[in-house]
Amino acid sequence: RRLSSKKIRSQFLDFFRSHDHVFVPSSSVVPSKDDGSYFVNAGMNQFKPIFLGTTEPGSDMAQLKRAVNSQKCIRVGGKHNDLKDVGRDLTHHTFFEMLGSWSFGDYFKREACVMAWQLLTEVYKIPADQLLVTYFGGNTELGLEPDEECREIWLSIGVPGNRVFPLGMKDNFWDMGDCGPCGPCTEIHLNRGLDASANLHERLMAGDPGITELWNLVFMQFNRELDGSLRALPACHVDTGMGLERLAAVLQGVSSNYDTDLFRPIFEVIQQVCDCPPYGGATGSDDKHSIDTAYRIIADHSRMLTVAMGDGLVPGRKGLDARVRHIMYRAFMHGFALNAPRGLLADLVPVVVDSLGEAFPELVAVPHQMQDVIITTEQRYSEQMKETEKSMKKALKASSVPHQLSTQEAERIVKGFYGSTTNADLLSLCAESMGVQFDVDAFHNHGLQQVRRSPTSVRSLAKERPALNQYEVEYLLQRGVPPTDDTFKYSTFN
Ligand code: ATP
Ligand code: MG
Ligand code: MG
Ligand code: MG
C-alpha cells in the first residue's frame, strides 16, 4: 500500500520529535518584515532571529534548542523564484511544503547527517544505493575551504566515495536572500537514472532531471552583510529542508510530484468541471501549450492561492497582493487550454482545503470568502483581458513584425497610450495566449535601465513617495538598501 502524504508528513515530524525536537507550527507565508517582493521561502525564515542572536531573552524562541516543522513556502519572487519552471518540470511548485529540522547551537554536522540518513533509509526505507550526496567544495574568492569534514561524515556513515560529490556556491552554499543567515550545505539526491552509477557527477552538475534533489542540510555559520561580506554568526546551527511533494513522489513510487495524492484529487475535479481529456501523466512534456501543462499549472496555482489567501492576502495592486493577483490571472489564463468554464479555480479551493487543512488549520476557516474573491477577480480579469487584447491587436497592426511586440510598443500600451486598464503583467499573459512574442524580461530590464540613469532621484523618491515602482525598488534592493519600511511597498502591476 502506498504511503499517503499525510502519513509521510507525520512520520517526519514523529521521527524528529523522538529525537527531542520541538514541533513549531508553520509560520504564515507573509514574512514578518514584508518588503512586498517575496513570500516566506524556507522553513528557516521564522527562525532568523535565533541565527542572528536577536531573540528576546527568556522568550520561547530564545529557549529552542531543537525544532521540527512543516513550513508553507512560496517561491515566486526575490532570490528564490521558480515560477518559470512550474508546470514545465515535475519538481518545482510555486507553493510547496518544506519538512524541516533544526539545531540551534546544539548538535552540528555529524548528528544532522546521521539522522537524515536514518530517516530516509530506515524509516522511509529508500534503498541507500539510489541516494547520493553533495557537499560544499569551497570558494577561493571568499576564502572558504572545502567542507572535508562533511565528506568524511558521509563516508563514515557508509555512503561510498563514488556517490559523494563536491559542488560550488550555487548549489552547496545556501542563503535565503542577498543578505541574511547563510552557510555551506550538504544535499541528498535521489538518482532515478536507469544506469545507476554512470557519470553521476556530470549529470548532477548538468541538472539531469533523472536526479532529484530531496533534502538540503545547511550548516548556518555566517550572516551575509549588506556589502556582501560574510560575518561569522555567534553560534553554529543546523537548518534542514526537504520538499514534501518530492518525497511523496519517491515514496509513492511515481516519477512526478503531480502523480502523488497531493495533486491527483485536484486533477480529478479539473477534469469533471472542464469535461476535458484526463491528465496524461508524467511525460514531462515541454510543449508549452499542452493540456497537461495547463493541468499542472492550474493545480499548482490553486494550492498557492488557497494558502496565500488563507494567510490573509487578497489579489490586489501592491506588494504580495499583486503577486497573488498575478498568479491568479495566470491560473485563469491557462484555463483556456482546458476550455475551462468560469468558476473552475473557485471550485478547486475546497479540494485544496481538504488536502492541506489538517496540516494547516488556518485554511479551513474561510473557503467561501476565498471563493467569492476568486469569482469577482475572474470577472475583472476577463474584462481587462479583452481590453488588453484589443490594445495588443492595434499595436501589432502598426508593428513591422506581425507576431512580435517590441519593448517600445509594450511601453506605449502600458502607459495607457492604447488602453488604460492594461499592465505589463497582463500584457505578457495576453501575448502568451495569443502566441505573440513578447520579451517581458527585456521590457523589465529597460525599465530598470531608465531608473539606473538617475540613481539619486530614486533615493530621494524613496523618502517622498508612498509607493515606488518595481524598477525603483529593484534598484534600491540591488544597492543593498534594506527594504524594511512601508515606503518599499510597491505597485508592480499598476
Ligand atoms: P532546486 O535545486 O531543485 O531548485 P533548491 O536547491 O532551490 O532546489 P532548497 O533551497 O535547497 O531548494 O530547499 C530545500 C528543499 O526544498 C529542496 O531540496 C527541495 O526538496 C524543496 N524545494 C525547493 N524548491 C522547491 C519548489 N519550488 N517546489 C517544490 N519543492 C522545492
Ligand atoms: Mg531552486
Ligand atoms: Mg538545488
Ligand atoms: Mg538546495
UniProtKB/TrEMBL annotation:
Record keywords: Aminoacyl-tRNA synthetase, ATP-binding, Ligase, Metal-binding, Nucleotide-binding, Protein biosynthesis, RNA-binding, tRNA-binding, Zinc
E.C. designation(s): 6.1.1.7
Cofactor(s) required for function per UniProt: Zn(2+)
Taxonomy, superkingdom: Eukaryota
Keyword ATP-binding on entry: yes
Single GO molecular function: zinc ion binding
GO BP terms: alanyl-tRNA aminoacylation
Domain Alanyl-transfer RNA synthetases family profile: 3-494
Catalysed reaction, written as an equation: tRNA(Ala) + L-alanine + ATP = L-alanyl-tRNA(Ala) + AMP + diphosphate
Cellular compartments per GO CC: mitochondrion
Job of this protein: Catalyzes the attachment of alanine to tRNA(Ala) in a two-step reaction: alanine is first activated by ATP to form Ala-AMP and then transferred to the acceptor end of tRNA(Ala). Also edits incorrectly charged tRNA(Ala) via its editing domain.
Similarity section: Belongs to the class-II aminoacyl-tRNA synthetase family. Alax-L subfamily.
Domain notes: Consists of three domains; the N-terminal catalytic domain, the editing domain and the C-terminal C-Ala domain. The editing domain removes incorrectly charged amino acids, while the C-Ala domain, along with tRNA(Ala), serves as a bridge to cooperatively bring together the editing and aminoacylation centers thus stimulating deacylation of misacylated tRNAs.
Protein name listed in UniProt: Alanine--tRNA ligase
Species annotation: Capitella teleta (Polychaete worm)
Full-length numbering of the shown residues: 10 to 503 of 773
